[in-house]
Design a protein that fits this description.
About 0% of the residues lie in helices and about 50% in strands. With about 130 residues, the chain is an all-beta fold. The strands form 2 sheets. Strands 2, 4, 5, 6, 9, 10 and 11 form a 7-stranded mixed beta sheet that branches. The model has no long low-confidence stretch (mean pLDDT about 95).
């Protein structure tokens, strides 16, 4: 299995930036894809961004395209989510997750395709 720990959340003003990190341990890091999801109070968990095992393929929700960037450093067993131009509607708990499904060039966007989840980190954007 995989253990995932998110960090980097906090309070930021609208228009500001944050970088989230997802540190992994356990299974060989370069063998699986990773996704970021978020969940706001009273709303369903939604896909934000994903990256395949090599970092060569990424995918984003339409709501964050052009503002968020996902990347990974396999030498550090870490995935990052750089968030720029933050908006109040980005306020949510952010979770990283690992998918053990084949991911040579595919980025999974459904929560049910992910097998291990972190505990989450809160991002609050003030208007």
């Amino acid at each position: 299995q995989v253990q995932l720990v998110e960090s980097g959340g906090g309070l930021v003003q609208a228009g500001g930036s944050l970088r989230l990190s997802c540190a992994a341990s356990g299974r060989t890091f370069s063998s699986y894809g990773v996704g970021w999801f978020r969940q706001a109070p009273g709303k369903e968990r939604e896909f934000v961004a994903g990256i395949n095992w090599s970092g060569g393929r990424t995918g984003y929700a339409d709501s964050v395209k052009g503002r968020f960037t996902i990347s990974r450093d396999n030498a550090k067993n870490t995935v990052y989510l750089q968030m720029n131009g933050l908006k109040a509607e980005d306020t949510a708990a952010y979770y990283c997750a690992a998918s053990f499904r084949p991911s040579s060039s595919y980025v999974y966007t459904r929560a049910r395709d992910y097998d291990s989840w972190g505990q989450g980190t809160q991002v609050t954007v003030s208007a």
